[in-house]
Structure to design on (265 residues):
């Protein structure tokens, strides 16, 4: 089986042009097939507020009314995606920037209203991604760069969390490739003490995850990230790592990097 790296980059890194530059250089240095998935929540929140729209997030998920959908489509699918693609081209990576609507690569279902109406937010299921379609793109020599916009197949764009897209792509492609999924963000991994970059927790299994949650060592945005990461591990993804974007080069050199998730330690 050939291998593939699926790398997700979050909004805090995207917002810093120097960090983004170095990250994209390291991404280019990874061998073999690769896919980049990017968020950009921080930029979308800033722009929404500049436009006089209040940004509302519940459990890390953005309430996406029609105005907010317009903003996130412009920010994720336009500004951030095309900027990343242009920078990757400079480094020699033949990147192709995509929403889930392009090539029908990621089809989602609008989240049903239960206690909260999330608006135009799309949920991924087992039928959302056809790995063969993506494989054709990879074999043609392109490096896909996915933003957090998907579609429902009925003409409606939807906003989908980028961590979830990365996990779902990894699970789907695990049928064809040996997948390494890396979540890159601004800290050196899952930390014992969020203010101490040296306190990296090197391995987490589901049991330890439960303990860390109880002790409130893990909270806020790290909770949905780890839920997505464990979902990938339990569905055939070989390696899942969470680490700092400027240490991605360590993956290539097989050096210790961030926090590794396991089924059991
Ligand atoms: N134990 C922990 N170690 C590291 N980060 C943590 C931890 N617990 C909570 N966090 C928070 O999780 C955030 C990462 O989640 P999020 O902001 O959703 O990431 P991204 O930038 O990839 O979208 C970190 O910025 C940090 O504030
Ligand atoms: C539905 C939903 O919450 N979508 C996310 C998509 C962007 C994202 O995931 O960005 P980060 O990775 O930078 O957080 C949002 O609009 O914030």
């Amino acid at each position: 089986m050939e291998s593939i790296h699926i790398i997700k980059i979050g909004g805090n890194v995207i917002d810093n042009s120097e960090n983004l530059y170095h990250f994209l250089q390291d991404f280019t240095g990874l061998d073999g097939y690769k896919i980049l998935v990017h968020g950009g929540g921080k930029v979308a929140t800033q722009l929404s507020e500049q436009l006089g729209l209040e940004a509302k997030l519940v459990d890390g998920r953005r309430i996406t009314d029609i105005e907010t959908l317009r903003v996130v489509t412009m920010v994720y699918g336009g500004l951030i995606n095309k900027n990343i693609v242009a920078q990757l081209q400079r480094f020699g990576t033949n990147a192709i920037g995509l929403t889930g609507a392009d090539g029908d690569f990621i089809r989602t279902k609008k989240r049903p209203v239960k206690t909260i109406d999330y608006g135009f937010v799309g949920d991924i299921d087992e039928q959302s991604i056809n790995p063969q379609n993506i494989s054709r793109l990879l074999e043609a020599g392109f490096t896909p760069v996915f933003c957090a916009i998907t579609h429902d197949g009925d003409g409606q764009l939807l906003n989908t969390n980028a961590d979830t897209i990365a996990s779902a792509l990894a699970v789907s492609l695990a049928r064809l490739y040996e997948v390494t999924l890396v979540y890159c963000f601004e800290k050196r991994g899952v930390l014992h003490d969020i203010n101490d970059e040296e306190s990296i927790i090197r391995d987490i299994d589901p049991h330890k995850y439960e303990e860390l949650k109880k002790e409130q060592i893990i909270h806020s945005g790290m909770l949905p990230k780890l839920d997505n990461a464990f979902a990938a591990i339990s569905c055939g993804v070989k390696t899942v790592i969470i680490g700092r974007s400027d240490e991605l080069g360590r993956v290539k050199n097989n050096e210790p990097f961030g926090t590794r998730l396991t089924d059991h330690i």
